[in-house]
Amino acid sequence: MEDLAAVFDPQGMFDFPDPYPLFAELRRTSPVTSFQFLNRLAYVVTRYDDVRAVLQDGETYSSRANAEVGRYMGRTLEALVPTIEALAHERVDRLAGDGRADLVAQFSLLFPLDVIAGILGLTRSDHAQFQRWSLDLIAFSKDPSRAHGAAERLREYFLPFIRLRRDEPRADVISRLVTGTVSGVGLTDDEVVSFLRLLLPAGAETTSRLLGSMLYALLTERERLARVDADRSLMPWAIEETLRWETPVVFVARQTTRPVEIAGTPIPSNTMVSTIIGSANRDETHFDDPDTSASATTSPSSRPASV
What we know:
By secondary structure, the chain is α+β, with helices and mostly antiparallel strands. The chain has 2 domains: 4-64 and 247-302, 2-Layer Sandwich (Uridine Diphospho-n-acetylenolpyruvylglucosamine Reductase, domain 2); 67-245, CATH 1.10.630.10. The chain has helices at 4-7, 20-29, 48-56, 67-79, 81-96, 103-108, 111-120, 127-138, 144-167, 173-179, 189-220, 222-230, 235-245, 277-280, and strands at 32-37, 40-45, 61-62, 181-182, 185-186, 251-256, 260-262, 265-267, 272-276. The strands form 3 sheets. A 5-stranded mixed β-sheet has the order 1-2-9-6-3, sandwiched between helices. A hairpin with a 2-residue loop joins β1 (32-37) and β2. α8 (127-138) crosses α11 (189-220) and α11 packs across α13.
């Protein structure tokens, strides 16, 4: 096999229909691998213990995301559960009478966009454009100019909504963001725009991937579906196992705040570290038969937690 340290690029994994053999080889031969990302030195971390350690150490490995805003948004979404449930029932009811459906095209792809548009208070006619912008943002490293263009178009689209909600708040996420505070300070228009731009790819695209993978796992092995259908308390476990087996977030980037060493590899301060979630969650030293979804063969308490 070619020198993986030389050819591996975290964004390139999306071009591989099955990146897991590559991840396994990295865990075996190059668990901490350097590479060039946007003309900067960066590192990939692939083993479960190392990935977990990086993600749990918020002082040494900082995130660009504002943690307090994230916690605030979590509380906001909890308050909107009835709205989300209503949208799910509406989408499923449309499929119920047809006898068959393309669950990716007709549900898992569209339902998250229904939710995002609904909780933002936007019109459904914009769903298709939202998805195109989201995909452009996700593919930043492949086409930075296109991603910047999508980000600017989103800014232009959201600003009138933000200004309107400051004057006339409603029961939607934009109103909650513009009227709420983080550490006692209100968010500026650009801070709200930045968060809303993050919400589209982080919320809609990742949820769509999770739903598609879970439906595939349940429907291709009917004993899994029967088990979860008979005991709905297993639904959180089925979701958790899907997140481990086919994670919608393949890697998460962090920035070192000081010089550090991971698995014997020194890493300078102010350096990007990409933790490969998709690799860590299939680490054979932590999971038996890691390439198989275990939702029908094990109990929740018999399997380690995914990253």
